[in-house]
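Per reviewer request, we include the raw input and output of the structure prediction for the construct analysed in the revised manuscript.
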Amino acid sequence: MPRSKKGKRGSGKPGVRNGVKGEMGASDDELTSDVLSHYSSNSETASVMDEGTGGEQVDEQTAQEETEDKLKQCIDNLMDKSSKTRLAGLESLRQVFSSRLLYDFLTERRLTVSDCLERSLKKGSGEEQAAAATVFTLLCIQLGGGDEAEEGFKMLRPILTAILIDNSASIAARQSCARALGMCCYVSTAEEGEDLVKSLALLESVFMASYPNREGVLPTPKPGSPGLHCAALQAWSLLVTLCPASRLTVLLDLHLPKLQACLQSSDVNYRIAVGETIALLVELGRDIEENFEVEDSDSLCECLKSLATDGNKHRAKNDRRKQRSIFREVLHYIENEDFTEERIRFGVESVYIDSWMRRRIYDAFKEIQESGVSHHLQFNPLLRDIFGLGPPLILDAAVKANKISRFEKHLFNSAAFKARTKQRAKVRDKRADVM
């Protein structure tokens, strides 16, 4: 969903799950496993009384201290002289950041973590740069898109940019930096800001290398370039969802015809990214103008129809199946303005993906957080704001412990919705320019 224009989202302090940390001598794999297991058990047992007459409470304070000790060790590993140790530390943080909320812990240490990530991005190998860019993206999401995230983005943006446009840098590092620039700009800056304009232009400069030349011929892709172009295009299309109508009109005129030509790309993943981006741009165009039409729509539909029924045996079976499925959806939307709704369930709630815009946003978070996206949808105020879910629900022990019927869920969510509405009415900014 589009953000309101009243300023930066996530200015309020996000909710925090419990944290843990342990002995210093453990291997990094054991360290990560211990941290995740402590966090998992804590989030399940927080504020739940043990059964029995004694009613003893779980010792959350001790568990939290243990987890924080383990996380501090992971951060210390980022400063080790051994690249292997630094990589293991980055991987440990990636897993924990993607699966749990650590707002309080990271707010106190964000400058330390940012300094470590900056060092890895400047001096590390391609693998280390790629990992550091991913961890930095997760850090911005953890910080909730507020002033802390924006400050960190301004600090590391020049380095991410330098790696992205460096043709001698590793493809993996450049791809990770493209995704980081898109997501960090999305969560940390307001609409129509200077960072948004610069990030759009930078990402365009990368994927436009795949556009046809003046004779209409697509360039021969260099090794790894389709993956880089795909990452840049997807990051760009995420940021396009923030653009005002005036800028969108310019972008549609410039990119739609060129993207149509890229449907003939030899790389299946890039073709799919192009098809989804075309559908997104058409949807945004129809939001601006009810009678919006794609230039040479007959030719576009013929091309989409061909890709939706592609049976070339030289393509991998899974690639053919994936391509046909996506392009059937794109074709159906272009011809009938009909989107196949998807329901994402997490806890006792659901989020509905009912547009190409919401799909692009959800896919972007899922790509970076992987299976942890469900936890963040439940508890991270940033994601809940983006998807219009309201403040995190507080479930009591009975709701957590027992499977409840659909009707009971409805009653529970209705009560929660009423409570959220009353609370938000008290603090709503009447000057907000709601889109």
